[in-house]
């Protein structure tokens, strides 16, 4: 069981290691856009959309890693002030009744759009843009899958390591 949990963690850590370079690329491309536009008077919709693609990839694909390192958004009304066992129960509830259903619903409702986008190899959002909206839409099931995998691993840890909560 530990091997499976470590494997899921390794997937999200590996994805995060790749995504770190998305941040660097975003900054460099955005800098180039500003210099190109204001210094040289040159503009490219394709280059502008590349920042959008990098940004979407970064935030959609890093969600599993964010959950892994426990830096996700938490509505902390009383969570920090309660005992570890109650925190553990809140986490279990969150995984089972909030995260799992929402990710499964998102997968279910977005899949036809993603599938159709791949069928027609959906083109750019704007004239002159990146001809790969199908890749952008593919981030939705990837986001759901990475987050569900990490949630499953976290949930298993919550059930097997009760004393470490």
Automatic annotation (TrEMBL):
Entry keyword Membrane: yes
One MF term in the entry's GO annotations: transmembrane transporter activity
Matching Pfam families: DctQ
GO cellular component labels: plasma membrane
Chief site of localization: membrane
Compartments in which it is found: Cell inner membrane
The keyword Methyltransferase is annotated on this UniProt entry: no
Membrane topology of this protein: Multi-pass membrane protein
Membrane-spanning residues: 21-40, 52-69, 90-109, 129-149
Domain Tripartite ATP-independent periplasmic transporters DctQ component: 26-160
InterPro entries per UniProt: DctQ, TRAP_DctQ
Keywords assigned by UniProt, alphabetized: Cell inner membrane, Cell membrane, Membrane, Transmembrane, Transmembrane helix, Transport
Family: Belongs to the TRAP transporter small permease family.
Stated role: Part of the tripartite ATP-independent periplasmic (TRAP) transport system.
Self-association state and partner proteins as the record states: The complex comprises the extracytoplasmic solute receptor protein and the two transmembrane proteins.
UniProt cross-references to PANTHER family, sorted A to Z: 2,3-DIKETO-L-GULONATE TRAP TRANSPORTER SMALL PERMEASE PROTEIN YIAM, SLL1102 PROTEIN
Protein name: TRAP transporter small permease protein
Protein species of origin: Tritonibacter multivorans
């Amino acid at each position: 069981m530990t091997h499976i949990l470590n494997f899921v963690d390794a997937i999200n850590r590996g994805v995060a290691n790749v995504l770190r370079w998305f941040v660097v690329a975003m900054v460099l491309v955005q800098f180039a856009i500003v210099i190109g536009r204001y210094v040289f008077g040159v503009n490219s919709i394709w280059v502008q959309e590349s920042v959008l693609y990098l940004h979407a990839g970064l935030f959609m694909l890093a969600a599993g890693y964010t959950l892994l390192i426990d830096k996700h958004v938490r509505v902390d009304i009383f969570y920090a002030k309660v005992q570890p066992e109650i925190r553990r129960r809140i986490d279990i509830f969150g995984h089972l009744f909030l995260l799992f259903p929402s990710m499964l619903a998102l997968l279910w409702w977005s899949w036809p759009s993603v599938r159709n986008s791949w069928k027609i190899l959906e083109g750019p959002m704007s004239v002159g843009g990146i001809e790969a909206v199908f890749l952008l839409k593919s981030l939705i099931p990837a986001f759901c899958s990475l987050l569900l995998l990490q949630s499953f691993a976290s949930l298993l840890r919550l059930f097997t390591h009760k004393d470490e909560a």
